Amino acid sequence: MIIIIIIIAIFKETCPDDKFTEDDQNSILEALGEVLRRTPKGELPHLKSYRLVGGALIYTCANQQSGQWLTKAIDNQRLESGARLKATEARNLPKPVKVALHTRDKVVQNQEELLKWIADLNPGLHTENWRVLNRQSESKGQRLILFIDRDSHTIIQRTGYEIFTGLSHRTAKVLNDPEVQHQAEPVPDTVSSNLVSEEEGG
Fold it and tell me: Over the range 62-82, which residues count as b (16 or more CB within 10 Å of their CB) and which as e?
């Protein structure tokens, strides 16, 4: 059995500097409802679920046709604020970088406060876009596993991966960079990041 799932990302043209709010999400859903009502019966999409991630609206569609409908319905439309909307398959968006960061500082233990602290100390780092995957308290501080945005990664590269964390600075370690991995791997004849295959009986 082969299940095809299409993931569409809807975002502001100025993203990541300008992100969706819940009010923006509601406006988009209302606009999509209007388009849906005008869509001929034979062209109706199968839309599964949506969520706000990193300031973008991520929509799961049941098939390619539904993804194309959604992209056409949204791309180049505008919010009431005037912000232009863009839509593309989520696989085309820049992939986050997975890093590990040890800090001995105990200025703050709350991870949200720590990320804000890092942003204040390191201009150019968009820590509001970072996602904490794992946090471990240690006798001499804490260890974080993070997904960070590519713009922040570029800034950190320029500093030799050194990040000021308060009372000291630490070196971040890259655990996984999808862009580097993609460049290093041979590309097969047929590739689809949205294709999920389930083999039954074998």
Answer: eeeebbebbbebbeebeeeee
